[in-house]
Amino acid sequence: MGEDLSMPPTVQLDPDRLRAHAVRAAELADVLRPQSTPNSQALLACRQPPGGEAFLAELDRLTTTVRRAADELANLARALRSAAVEVETVDRDLGRDISLAEQGLS
After folding, report:
1. What span, in angstroms and rounded, lies between the C-alpha atoms of 35 and 50?
2. CB 25 within 8 A of CB 74
3. Which residues contact 84 (CB under 8 A, 6 or more apart)?
4. Residue 28: is it exposed, middle or buried by C-beta count within 10 angstroms (0-12/13-18/19+)?
5. With a threshold of 0.85, does the pTM exceed it?
6. Would you tell me the crossing angle of helices 15-35 and 52-105 to the nearest 10 degrees?
7. Among 28-32, 58-62, 87-91, which is the least confidently predicted range?
8. pLDDT at residue 81 above 90?
9. Whole-number CA gyration radius for the chain
10. What is d(CA 41, CA 35) in angstroms, rounded to the nearest whole number?
């Protein structure tokens, strides 16, 4: 299946926007991380009723998924911050090159 090239790109390479998205991703990771560790009292309560082991297995699966999501959001935040720095560097270098080219034409 081919890519629809008639669609305009949606990536915004504004360093401030990239940083803002990085902050939001990091905040979401911080919110999710504590949710990925159930408290010990809840774990003990789950073990007692019949079928508690199945519940614990499902809880483990869910908390692992939440922990992975938090890790991925933290990685995304780092990548977005890095992208912001790279965009600024390219913009600065491009501006310098344009300025030098204009000076050479004068």
Report:
1. 25
2. yes
3. 15, 16, 18, 19, 22
4. middle
5. no
6. 170
7. 58-62
8. yes
9. 24
10. 15
Distance CA 18, CA 27 (A): 14
For residues 12 and 29, give the distance between their C-alpha atoms in angstroms, rounded to a whole number. 22
pLDDT digits (tens, 9 = 90+) for 35-73: 877 777 777 777 777 777 888 888 888 889 999 999 999
What whole-number distance in Å separates Cα of residue 32 and Cα of residue 74?
A: 10
What is the token pair recorded at 44? 């003990």
How far apart are the C-alpha atoms of 106 and 102, rounded to whole Å?
6
Tokens of 36: 């990925």
Q: Rounded CA gap, 55 and 44, in Å?
A: 12
Task: Compute the distance between CA of residue 81 and CA of residue 72 in angstroms, rounded to an integer.
Answer: 14
Domain chopping of the chain, boundaries: 20-105
